[in-house]
């Protein structure tokens, strides 16, 4: 459930979501908050809550992610979270097909890096 959605000088446009009695997440520096997102609204995983921006004290476009456990901000990478629900057998083939189609987009390597490095190294003479 959305517990906060608004604007502050430092966070810019932001949304804070309470997931249950233990976990809360925050998303900061949006360019704008999605239509209909306000305190008291229930949201679902995958639903758009805002758009990448650089409002508040941001140095460039991004979304800042914050994570609280029992009201205390913690490092989400160090938390032992409960496992998610497995993909149902009836959707497994479709899941793997979609996963295989999208995976190359997630494995990003700047295309010009190798060429730029080779060109720079090739031009260096001592």
TrEMBL record:
Domain of life assignment: Bacteria
Domain M23ase beta-sheet core: 2-76
GO MF entry, a single one: metal ion binding
CDD domains per UniProt: M23_peptidase
Coiled coil: none
InterPro entries assigned to the protein according to its UniProt record, in alphabetical order: Cell_wall_metabolism_enzyme, Dup_hybrid_motif, M23ase_b-sheet_dom
Cofactor(s) the protein requires to work: Zn(2+)
Keywords, in A-Z order: Hydrolase, Metal-binding, Metalloprotease, Protease, Zinc
Protein name: M23ase beta-sheet core domain-containing protein
